[in-house]
């Protein structure tokens, strides 16, 4: 049975979730605090296969690149939010004077699509 772990991350204190089962996991909305997320993954002894962004605002994508680099997990996001990953104005980070962008998604999701 899958376990759900909640972390509060980033300067905006957003919720990040780790869903883990049988040594594999999905990181949902890594909005900052890379070390905290990686430490939790190590504690759980789980390897993330996906990083899922529920949408593309800065508080959901800030740690994407570092988590991907450290783990090899693929980034997934809905096709309508994909441009926000690479555009600081669309993801609203430019407004705060610290533009945040990350790599494009490895896979674009469609409405109602299930992730296994």
Topology:
Blueprint lengths: L2 E7 L4 E8 L2 E5 L5 H11 L2 E7 L4 H4 L2 H8 L2 E5 L28 E3 L7
Parallel strand pairs: 3-4, 4-5, 5-6
Antiparallel strand pairs: 1-2, 2-3
Q: What is the CA-CA span between the terminal residues?
A: 13 Å
Task: Report the order of strands and helices.
Answer: EEEHEHHEE
Give Rg in angstroms. Answer: 13 Å
Largest sheet properties: 6 strands, mixed
Residues in β-strands, percent:
25-35%
Query: Low-confidence parts, pLDDT < 50 over ≥5 residues?
Result: none
**Regarding quaternary structure, how should these chains be classified?**
single chain
* Mean pLDDT reading: 96
Structural class: alpha/beta
Query: Residue share in helices?
Result: 10-25%
What count of helical segments does DSSP give?
3
Q: How many E-type strands?
A: 6
- Strand ordering within the main sheet: 1-2-3-4-5-6
So what's the overall shape?
globular
Task: Describe this structure as you would to a colleague.
By secondary structure, the protein is of the alpha/beta class. The chain is 20% helix and 30% strand. A six-stranded mixed beta sheet has the order 1-2-3-4-5-6. α1 links the parallel β3 and β4 (47-53). The radius of gyration is 13 Å and the shape is globular. The two termini are 13 Å apart. The relative contact order is 0.17.
Feature tags:
116 residues, alpha/beta, globular
What is this structure, in a nutshell?
The chain is α/β, with parallel strands linked by helices and 116 residues long. The protein has helices spanning 34-44, 58-61, 64-71, and strands at residues 3-9, 14-21, 24-28, 47-53, 74-78, 107-109. The longest helix has 11 residues, at 34-44.
């Amino acid at each position: 049975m899958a376990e759900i772990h909640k972390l509060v991350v980033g300067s905006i204190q957003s919720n990040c979730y780790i869903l883990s089962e049988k040594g594999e996991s999905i990181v949902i909305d890594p909005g900052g605090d890379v070390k905290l997320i990686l430490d939790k993954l190590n504690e759980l002894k789980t390897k993330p296969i996906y990083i899922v962004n529920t949408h593309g605002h800065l508080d959901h994508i800030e740690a994407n690149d570092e988590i991907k680099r450290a783990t090899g997990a693929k980034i997934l996001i809905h096709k309508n939010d994909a441009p926000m990953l690479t555009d600081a104005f669309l993801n609203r980070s430019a407004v705060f004077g610290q533009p945040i962008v990350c790599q494009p998604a490895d896979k674009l999701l469609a409405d109602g699509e299930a992730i296994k």
